[in-house]
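This section describes the prediction task in plain terms. A model, or a person checking by hand, is given the sequence of a single protein chain and must write out its three-dimensional structure as a string of tokens. No templates, partner chains or ligands are provided. The sample shown here is typical of the held-out split.
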Amino acid sequence: MQKGRGWYTIRAQTIRAKALRSIERKAKMSKICQIMQLTAMGLILILAGCNGKGQGEPGAYIDREAQLLKQIDQRFENPQAHYQLGKLYHADGLYDKAQYEYNIAIGFDPVNRPAQAGLVRLLADAGRSDQAVATAGLYIDQASASAESVSLLGKAFQDAGLDEYALACYQKALDIDTESAVSHKQLGYYYLAKGDKIRAEDHLRRSFQSNPYQADVAGELGKMGIMVQMPAKSSWPSQTTDKALNEGGSR
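The expected answer:
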């Protein structure tokens, strides 16, 4: 049977319609695939951010590492650069490299309290708790030659999030010198950070009584509503330095 011209026209329209539907389906599938790819990329970026341990952009990390390595290359006996590089590796979970840098920093500066606290924290983070306890005890014993020295170690422990060791240092400092301005100051700030304003006030008051030249302690007491009077500058010791005026360093 011979097909008429109309039949071919209808057939062509049907094929065209099917082709258009096929193109539309492919376009939809392509769009879905693009959305899935973007979603996957977003998840990867989120996970990368979570595993980055707060280092920020990879480029910034690389730049910081290169900067510190350059400083060390220029002068290997640079304890601060080794300490900062150790912190960088520590935060990135590179414990062996971090431990090496912390040890180098301490080797060049045996009283580098932040590096000592960093090493103890690293050992704890790495699950080597017994070694962390032993190392912390060693550093506390070494720093116990004076109340100020062991207080500064306590501050380093506190900054590293090792409150148990920090408190042990502060108590040790007061055992050495019950009127130590720096020890009471650090304990005051310790309790202030914990929200214990009663103990914080007590220790800050005692710190200021022992050394009334501390502007930061006077300011902190002022925030608590306790007005204290610093001596007139004319009465300050002639050889007073900034360190002496602000015994114990910054908060």
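For orientation: The longest helix spans residues 5-51.
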